[in-house]
Amino acid sequence: MILLTHETIRCRNINRPHVTAIAPVTWGTTYLVTTELLPSGHPLWSGELRALPAGLIALALGRTLPTGAWWWRSVVLGTLNIGAFFPLLFLAAYTLPGGVAGIFGAAGPLIVALLALALLGERVTARRIVWGLLAVLGVTAMVLGPERGLDPVGVAAGAGSAASMALGTVLSKRWAPPVGAVAFTGWQLTGGGLVMLPLTLGVEGAPPPLDAMALLGYGWLALVGGLLAYVLWFRGIGRMPAGVASFLPILSPLVAAALGWAVLGEGLTPVQAVGFALALVAVVAAQWRPRAARPPRVVAA
């Protein structure tokens, strides 16, 4: 059982990149869990059952509701990070062949760099642009085959999902929350889940029947891929430069590809393996920041 307490969230190392990286690593398990455990044909309910129960649990644990301007800010952030992001991501995945949607996710660091410059004043360095382009190149090599058609609706959804998460990441940092990560996560997951609910009911109707395997899958998505992952994610991006944190979600398609190879027996071509390595190098290199040079020591005569 996973217990989330304020003491757990205040662990002194929780703001380090490798701890924040737990979030996109768990998100990378979503494809395997969805294909192996969940009922097919219910992508919106998968997003809904991942967001809303986790949000309500986080609200209960955080024991704090928004006040003042944070009511509308929570709705905006919940829509960008959850309510709009999930449906657009699923639409892109269902209409673009071969996981091409991953390319748009890999472009996230470049989008965040521009938004962080405009909204946070973070300097755009040549280093960040180079690693961002390398990440796009690596993920592209992983998912594109020789014959791939591109659905315009899927392309628009993929671009929209990347832009939605990028803007949500930057605004989550710009609007420094007045509460801890658990309560802040509860505000966003609940707000995003409520925003998605009318669309989910209108498109897919009643929830799908749930057997033991489905309950296990939805439990993983809600408690680990939802509650735990987003607590770590929002805590991390509050303490890291937005441009640095934006590289970490690239780990999601890498984990998905690794699980497909290890668990489902999906093969990786040499080109895909090279792309995997390039994307991983970009993520790791983006976390490294040169230390400021120390001033020279002055020796008394």
UniProtKB/TrEMBL annotation:
Keywords: Membrane, Transmembrane, Transmembrane helix. Residues 22-143, 154-284 form the EamA domain. Pfam families: EamA. The chain crosses the membrane at residues 70-94, 100-120, 129-146, 152-172, 179-201, 213-233, 245-264, 270-288. InterPro entries: AA-Vitamin_Transporters, EamA_dom, EmrE-like. Belongs to the EamA transporter family. This is Probable blue pigment (Indigoidine) exporter.
